[in-house]
Amino acid sequence: MSGSSQNGNSDDPDKDASEVDLSERRNRLNRKLDGQRKAEEAERAAKKSDNSGYAQAMKLSSEFISAVVVGGGLGWFVDQWFGTKPFGLIVFLLIGFAAGVLNVMRAAGRIAEPGQRYKRESSDDDGFN
Question: Taking the model in full, what pTM does it have?
């Protein structure tokens, strides 16, 4: 029993060669599988970025359109309330347009949020009052 193959003591050189061969084949297979996994991950990341870009576009356009619609609604309501037919609608449509552009710029990261701007300005202070 001292030379049994269960203990790892194999005296057969053919068996050792086949184990080496199997080990090499297993390593090659692992390398191929790793390559395929990386390719699949890259493909998933590309699809995800396409979907997230579409979602970002939908979010930005809906924010802009909603701001213009709310501005127009408020303008119409002001016109009905005060009897100033076209002027309230025109003014509030312009205000809604400006608010929509500002919301889109903030969501896209082109302009900092007011709270973040204040934190950044206060962190630039020396600490002297």
Answer: 0.54
Residues of the chain above pLDDT 90, percent = 49
CA distance linking residue 95 with residue 46, whole number of Å: 38
CA separation for the pair 84, 109 (Å, rounded): 38
For residue 54, give Cα distances in angstroms to 58, 64, 81, 107: 6, 16, 40, 14
Two structure tokens written together for 39: 């390719």
- 92-119 pLDDT, tens digit per residue, is 999 999 999 999 999 888 787 777 666 6
The CA-CA-CA angle for residues 118, 119, 120, to 5°, reads 90
DSSP 8-state secondary structure symbol assigned to residue 124: T
State the Cα–Cα distance between residues 63 and 53, nearest whole angstrom: 15
Query: Residue 32 corresponds to which tokens in the numbers above?
Result: 């191929």
